[in-house]
Write a structure and sequence with these properties.
heterodimer, A: 323 residues, alpha/beta, Rossmann fold, five-stranded mixed β-sheet, 12 helices, 37% helix, B: 399 residues, two-stranded antiparallel ribbon
């Protein structure tokens, strides 16, 4: 057991994976000498060399396309996309090639590629640096999509993602990079599973990435008002751990899904549909969604108005309970 | 074995053919080389050039002093913005320090009807286009994502996505062609487009695609690449093995490298390229060889990846110092002029500061405006909810 940050948890996870498997290579912009703009790969080029920690030319499509080639040659590339909003030049390779090659080759070809994306807002950044674009990838069959929310999962989930023979889009909550926490001796269940972080009986809060902390704080505040909220960290967005969600909702009868991404066609929409289909008779209220609005991520001076916060989560909890 | 099966290799080679990426071509010195066009040496001496001298000779002393004023004011504005960021008034700033001549020289080569497509660092070009410098601060302060009408000064919004604007510039130029505004000989009508981008951007597929489109369409666009040697932490040789200006040849049009710290050379080379574009001779790739004296942005720490000795070399190539020397030795400007420009720079700095500080935050509901040109029910409903939600707090407060 050791204490570290989310960023350094990923670093140590990458290091462990690289020590274990010489085929693990990192590709990205500024990830070598600089250690990445968030310093997640700090020290890795020094220790593993330029052959394994590759400062690529400034070209996301190029990074992704060559990662595919390296995977075909037997490597396990871990790609860093510098910011969420910079992934789109690589989008074509991800959805048209990475996601489909296993299926097209009837399973002969595997694409064990991890695509690391720092995501979400709250850091006062300029345009394209605060987006939550997970739904685009979760909507694409053939990709697994996960998000870590704490140092323990950061450390272990990145290793699980690298070990997966499927391509994994690995979302990192950038505004929580420096949050500290304990890293335990082993992962909490396999990749693809959710985790109950706080037990409760009145309402289930479902979140992932940066919003997990917000929901835990909301549950704490609600407890002071005598309300018992269960908080589930989804951890995986494709697949979504239906079993964990349904077990909780069958207990509480109420669910609120929270994410920074726009609610319109977001992960919350899928969960709402799934819960309605699978646990309709257990529901005491409709599944509610708290998320970004159907607008481009706003200028940073307005981001606090855009991002779900404690008040908006509790407002939804109130509406759910009042139903 | 089927007929087309590849036979196994029977003779093994005795040598190890593994080539490490660490053995990539050696870092070239920061020298532009003999083919780099230079009209003013770093010492401020005029270098004769048979082809371009006439362009410089055409400039009045007033215009030449104007370049100096531009260089100084732009640097002062940039320094003020950096200071504003340090004091928390801007979230971020991308400094142009060191690149003033590349931007002023090219910006002043444009005509009114020409159109510029910038990155996020073209503060000097914006200045030359007549854009209010305070407008440039909005996105860095976080009050908007651009916030000016690109068509007012023919200066497009800053583009953060690396290289994307080179395609937009090319498409704009294709529109110019279809409007017949090329090669008419009417100097108020013939129009050229200039796309700004950096050395890092040349790696992006978009930039190569722009070169392809402009080449095959013979479009009136100048690709103006400011090679400032660094893409955040990655030096030039991580982006290219060949000099950047060599690329143009492969796309079927001329390329030229110019000393990006020499305002006269940049002006002359860019003017020539823009004139060629306007007259229907198609695109040109201009590589302005310069240096990013500061950090990539205020979020960056260059001490982590580059040595100060390199910065020192480039300090001696400062674009303003050499130009000032030349203006002085040729008697085109005197001490009074330089002092007046300095005073004007201080005034500009003060007024930019004052206007930045008084820049209001947008009203929260502004984020719902302009998302669509026509009303969209989802956004409209959310805006309504947003208003009610906030009103509920006010009611609570009133109670």
């Amino acid at each position: 057991m050791s204490t570290t940050t989310i960023a350094k948890g990923i670093t140590s996870g990458l290091r462990a994976a690289m020590e274990r498997d010489p085929k693990v290579v990192l590709l990205g912009e500024d990830i070598g000498k600089l250690g990445g703009v968030f310093r997640v790969t700090e020290g890795l080029q020094k220790d593993f060399g330029e052959d394994r920690v590759i400062d690529t030319p400034l070209a996301e499509a190029g990074i992704m396309g060559t990662a595919i080639g390296m995977a075909l040659r037997g490597y396990r590339p871990v790609v860093e996309i510098q910011f969420d909003g910079f992934v789109y030049p690589a989008f074509d390779h991800i959805v048209s090639q990475v996601a489909k090659l296993h299926s097209r080759s009837l399973g002969y070809v595997k694409m064990p590629i991890v695509i690391r994306i720092p995501f979400g807002g709250g850091i006062g950044a300029v345009e394209h640096h605060s987006e939550s674009n997970e739904t685009y990838f979760a909507h694409t069959a053939g990709l697994r999509v996960v998000a870590c929310s704490n140092p323990h999962d950061a450390h272990w989930m990145i290793q699980q993602a690298i070990e997966s023979d499927d391509p994994v889009v690995f979302y990192e909550p950038k505004r929580r990079y420096w949050d500290k926490g304990e890293v335990g001796e082993e992962p909490d269940g396999p990749l693809g599973t959710a985790r109950v972080l706080r037990s409760g009986t009145d309402v289930t809060l479902l979140a992932y990435g940066p919003m997990v902390k917000t929901c835990l704080q909301a549950a704490q505040a609600a407890e002071e008002e005598g309300r018992s909220l269960e908080v589930i960290d989804l951890r995986s967005l494709s697949p979504i751990d239906g079993e964990a969600i349904l077990a909780s909702v069958r207990k509480t009868g109420r669910a609120v899904v929270v994410h920074e991404a726009s609610t319109f066609l977001g992960i919350g929409s899928e969960i709402s549909a799934m819960v309605t289909e699978e646990a309709f008779h257990s529901l005491e209220a409709p599944v509610l969604r708290v998320g970004g609005y159907n607008v481009p991520y706003p200028p940073s001076r307005l981001e606090e108005e855009f991002l779900p916060d404690l008040d908006r989560v509790l407002d939804a909890v109130d509406r759910s309970l009042a139903y | 074995m089927s007929d087309n099966e590849v036979a196994p290799l029977e003779t093994a080679f005795g040598v190890d053919h593994h080539v490490s990426v660490a053995e990539a071509p050696e870092r070239p010195a920061h020298e532009g080389g003999p083919e780099m066009v230079q009209l003013l040496s770093p010492e401020g001496e005029r270098v004769p050039n048979a082809e371009l001298d006439a362009i410089v000779d055409d400039l009045s002393d007033e215009a030449l002093r104007g370049f100096y004023r531009d260089l100084v004011l732009v640097r002062r504005f940039d320094a003020e913005a950096t200071a504003l960021q340090r004091q928390g008034e801007l979230g971020l700033w991308a400094s142009l320090l060191g690149q003033e001549a590349a931007q002023v020289g090219s910006g002043r080569a444009m005509r009114r009807q020409d159109y510029a497509f910038p990155t996020y660092r073209e503060h000097g070009v914006a200045w030359c286009r007549g854009v209010d410098p305070v407008n440039l601060l909005g996105m860095f302060r976080g009050v908007n994502h651009g916030g000016w009408d690109p068509n007012e000064k023919n200066f497009h919004l800053y583009t953060i996505i690396i290289g994307a604007q080179t395609l937009h510039a090319t498409g704009y130029a294709m529109g110019v062609q279809r409007d017949g505004d090329v090669g008419t000989g009417d100097e108020r009508r013939d129009t050229a487009v200039i796309a700004y981008f950096g050395d890092g951007a040349t790696s992006q597929g978009d930039v190569s695609e722009a070169l392809v489109f402009a080449g095959v369409n013979n479009s009136p666009v100048v690709f103006f690449c400011q090679n400032n040697q660094w893409a955040i932490s990655e030096p030039n040789e991580k982006q290219t093995r060949a000099p950047l200006w060599h690329r143009a040849r492969g796309f079927g049009f001329p390329g030229i490298r110019v000393d990006g710290n020499d305002v006269l050379a940049v002006y002359a080379v860019t003017k020539q390229a823009l004139d060629a574009a306007r007259s229907g001779q198609g695109p040109t790739f201009v590589e302005a060889f310069t240096y990013r004296m500061g950090a990539h942005t205020t979020s960056d720490d260059p001490t982590k990846y580059r040595v100060s000795a390199e910065v020192e070399v480039w300090k001696h190539r400062d674009p303003i110092e050499r130009y000032k020397r030349w203006l002085t030795t040729t008697g085109k400007a005197d001490v009074d002029f330089f002092e007046a420009v300095d005073a004007e720079a201080d005034e500009l700095g003060a007024s930019v500061r004052e206007r930045c500080l008084s820049m209001p935050d947008p009203a929260p509901a502004e984020m719902f405006r302009h998302v669509y040109a026509e009303e969209h029910p989802v956004t409209a409903r959310e805006q309504e909810w947003f208003a009610e939600y906030h009103a509920s707090f006010e009611e609570e407060g009133a109670r």
